Amino acid sequence: xxxxVLLTIILNCSLALAVEDIALPVLGDSGAGLMSSAExxxxxxxxxxxxxxxxxxxxxxxxxxxxxxxxxQLASQSEIDNPRLDLVLVDNPTINAFAVPGGVVGVHTGLxxxxxxxxxxxxxxxxxxxxxxxxxxxxSVEAAKRxxxxxxxxxxxxxxxxxxxxxxxxxxxxxxxxxxxxxxxxRYSRIHEREADRIGMQTLVNGGYPANAAANMFRQMQDxxxxxxxxxxxxxxxxxxxxxxxxxxxxxxxxxxAVNPIxxxxxxxxxxxxxxLSGKEPKQLIKKFKFALEQSVTHQSNSGINKTTNSTKPFxxxxxNRATVQARLNAxxxxxxxxxxxxxxxxxxxATLQPLLQQLPGRIAYSLMDxxxxxxxxxxxxxxxxxxxxxxxxxxxxxxxxLLADTLLKNKNYVTAQQVLxxxxxxxxxxxxxxYLLAETQGxxxxxxxxxxxxxxxxxxxGNFLQARKQLxxxxxxxxxxxxxxxxxxxxxxxxxxIRQITEQL
Length: 506
Known about the structure:
Layout: H1 2-17, H2 37-54, H3 61-75, E1 86-90, E2 97-100, E3 104-108, H4 109-114, H5 118-133, H6 136-145, H7 150-164, H8 167-177, H9 182-206, H10 212-228, H11 234-238, H12 243-256, H13 265-278, H14 282-302, E4 305-306, E5 311-312, H15 318-342, H16 346-359, H17 364-376, H18 380-393, H19 398-410, H20 414-427, H21 432-444, H22 448-461, H23 465-479, H24 483-505
Parallel strand pairs: 1-3
Antiparallel strand pairs: 2-3, 4-5
Helix pairs in contact: 1-2, 1-7, 3-5, 5-9, 5-10, 6-9, 7-8, 9-12, 10-12, 13-15, 14-15, 15-16, 15-17, 16-17, 17-18, 18-19, 19-20, 20-21, 21-22, 22-23, 23-24
């Protein structure tokens, strides 16, 4: 039913836009004659509301904030004129990323665990940003109009299937919707892919990353495709990796020139965090990270002195390699501490994390992990005090604010938790998990009017207009004769109806 509703919405949009015959734009053309940027934005936001409602998302603030920073950093170096971007982090182990018209960029957690370096992950994000900057969706509508407008609906709905049912169902949906003109559609898609490769690599280099990261990621994907066999990851179905494509990336990388290596530690920490949060068996995770840590320690000891010749010799690439080995070692230690904590072994978690805290005590990821260990050990008051201190320094930090609010709730300090979340909701108004936790907190604090208002925002972000209106009407009754509050609620009801009408017109 969900797929059918989305298909209808997007199909109606495609039919409405495919009224006049318009020449196919050349590479780099904005496609403005067919679909305006505002129309793309409206379509993307409507799709995003449906996507949030039907797909399991990863809501870890530390991971989200890292990805968001990386995405906007790359966007600032891209050809996107107005980088109004919305990031969605899908809780799915498959290798996949996607760009949806209107500035929506999605990343599967499986891509993070598969990319070996931040540069490799950045190469995929830069590629998706190139799809947006070159407005490939608007140009695809024209190509689809000449064959079958339903193919566009299939493309977007296939993203949702890929995030939920898996690659096979997604591929079936896309293949069915494109059956009328599969050859011409594939040719057009390959043009877009080559263009996104070229422009994405330039964005990558502009961002300070080595150009060969794109080719390295292609090789990584190609190896993955052999391992997966018929169950090939969705990203490889929609972005087929061929030897010629890899060769093109390698050739372009040779002419791009060398750049100074960027520190990889933040990415490696996030990669370890995704691995632990995605894992279901803590004991297996402990075993995995213990082995990885032992290997990293061995590599580090071999990076300075070659024991067979007893001479000073770089392990692979002198300073760059040593920095990479150190980053992996720190990440493996962090992952092991996190796995121990997940298994309730907080004393071992503390001992494992200690060297990282001594090495760089100010790193937020380490500090929050140490506080999470306090929570596991039942030291709730200590955890709250430490979080309050961090919050005083960085009050808008997503991860600190959410952990503080959760800890305040555990300590039954509902009013303060509400204050923290209300402040966060002003800067993170598109984060459904913030509104959800805020509503729960307001309920515990006895603030029933604002509970309904927060629930309305939560449902609105997920495209459930009926429930959003219900919550607003509940709040309106509670507001009674308070003119200012009633006026604000009535305005939000009008906003909700306007958004619903726009969505249904697409």
